[in-house]
Amino acid sequence: MYSEYNSLEELKAQVIADWEQTGLDVSTRNRYPIRFVLFDNFRDCSQFVDYVQEEMDAIVQSVDKWIDPEYPDIMITYTELAERIQAHIKKMDGVNCVIAPFSELARFYDNDEKKTFDALLKTIKAIEASSKSFETHQRVYVPIVGLEGKMESFKNDSQSTIWRLRAEDKGLTYRLILTNGETFGVNGLETHYTVVHNIHEWLNIWKDADKQVTPNIICTSNSIYGNAKFAQPDNAFAFVLCRDAYDFLTKGLQLQFGGMTKALGDGDNWQNLASQIDISNGFSFSKYVKNYFSITDIDSHQAFIKLWFDYPGLYERWLLARFYQLQQNGEGFICRILTKTTTLIGNDFIEQMVLDMTEIESEMVVRQYCLREAAKRNIVLREGIESTLNKRLQSIADKFNAASALKYCTGITEKEKELAISWLGKGLISVDQIKDFYPDMYHYYATPLGVSVNIPEWLPEYMKEYKKAKVSNKYTEDVDIQIKKINGSEVTFDTWYQGFCTTRTILQGREDIEVFYWVDGLGIEWIPLIKEIIREKNSQNIFLNDIKIARAILPSKTDVNKADLQKLLPEYEQLMKMGDLDNLAHQSTNLWPNTIIKEVKLVRDIVEEIIAKYNGKKIAIISDHGLTYLSQLCEGLGLNGVESDHHGRVAIKKNGGWTKDDNYFRLEDGTTVCALRHSSLCNKVPKGQGIHGGCTPEEVLVPIFIISSNINNTE
Hints:
By secondary structure, the protein is of the alpha/beta class. It has 31 helices and 19 strands. Among the domains are: 2-165, 3-Layer(aba) Sandwich (Rossmann fold), CATH 3.40.50; 501-708, no CATH class. The strands form 4 sheets. It has a 6-stranded parallel beta sheet with strand order 1-6-2-5-4-3, with helices on both faces. It starts with a strand and ends in a 7-residue tail after the last strand. The relative contact order is 0.06. It comes from Xylanibacter ruminicola (Prevotella ruminicola). This is PglZ domain-containing protein.
């Protein structure tokens, strides 16, 4: 029998009438004590249970008592539940009772294929009263909330007694947020949610009418998660099934991420994000990201690329990339590159940017900035990427001009630098055009000497022509004219050579200098670059106090000059060697223009290493000799009957003396001569190699750098 009531008072009246009823069908009513009472919400259900406890002396039996405490998340079978109810009714011995919560468990029984929900109700509705229960009119009230759809098949069952209280307000439903055993590490949930972890806890929150259950309930029970599909239709709960951390955050907790949706390559990053969220005081995705990266905003490509390199982890880059895409509405050069990037770990993002040779001016600016930042951090690209870039740059240069190709050069690859040096040597570009992407080469090449006092007038111009010839890898007419003018004979050479003092002469007695750093093969050609490197360190209170130019002792070899430099130190102290340009120069694998690139990098590395060791003392960087890379471009003179040293930059005659010759300078020992100009005295210097031992300015003139923590700290 099914009947509906429009108010709780009507239902209460029915309860009394049912219990006191007399008449022809009273026997049937007393024989079957089960009363299914349907409610649209838990508020009405709670009020009803309170009423029958007070007015009908009904005893409430909570279903959670029948859950095995050792296995709190194992669902009791419908047959066991029916047996438990039947045994409990018998145990009550005629006393009225309430089985609650009942529907909070029963709603999860399979009613699709196995029809266990229907089987449960059919079993318990058929429970018959004992003789005593018959006489006392025992009633067993089974409240069912929100399952009127499932109860539809029992409406016309004459053996069932079903009462339904219709509620005007059906909006008192709960959001049941279901996960498969976890809350993904989100903190602060209990502040805003009722959280249950198993069936026992789930049932427990419904048995206490005074317990405050939040409108949103988080349930991590594996059993409920697995059986949630059987609960439909359900008017008491709005089920939110969360299959992963993204679902839990966005659908379950309804947190806002600025429209960010789950993407195929997100991996475990939503899980990582969830584990760092605390909703105790609310949640703002924008605030979280800014706090995570300790910044005020990520609204520019400069801010983005800095964070990209500062935070190389997968989760960090994922968070940065997704947030930046939100900020930029997915538009712009960086966003386009991010969509092409297949992995955030490593250099795929940078490599994609390298190959995206945009023609949009604003995008070119972004590309240049980002790749130059990558170059500063010594990012190494795959060989195939470098090769592809090189071909594209060369193609642009061939189709248009070198200046057009130079717009895409950023200094991130050696191939770019090789092309730039090649174009510079051919005069296809100016040195100013490489300043932004290859600043070290610019500072090396743009200023011929970097010293303007106490030097002969010809020296800056000579160094300018020397560098031009070295960079072009051609022995130029201008260099030839210059060297013949200043080193045309022993007299012309010795005139300017004696105008310089040796390093030991200049620094002898300088007690203010506490540490000497010797760099093997450092010539005066490197003065402009080293000045710039030290200038960059001014903010660290490291200052260049003085630059002097000294001469090496002839022959301009390491053993001769190191011994003289060693005399600057006490006998018990060894000269400290930092870096070796000499060793690089003699490598048989040297190839232009790659060797120049290696030299430039090595000089910076040497100075950076010295500065890294710097501890506030006044120091001097000194050298034994310089190097020339022009001898390998000239044929050797092929002198006979002599012993060649340093590929003919030095020659030794053990028998007989040397006659006067404008090709060499005779030393006082009478057996040794040094090449005055770039042609070596014996065989040709091997291709690609730098050499020393001769008399050219780049070989015999060496710099002295005085560095301290005081900007005006001179002797």
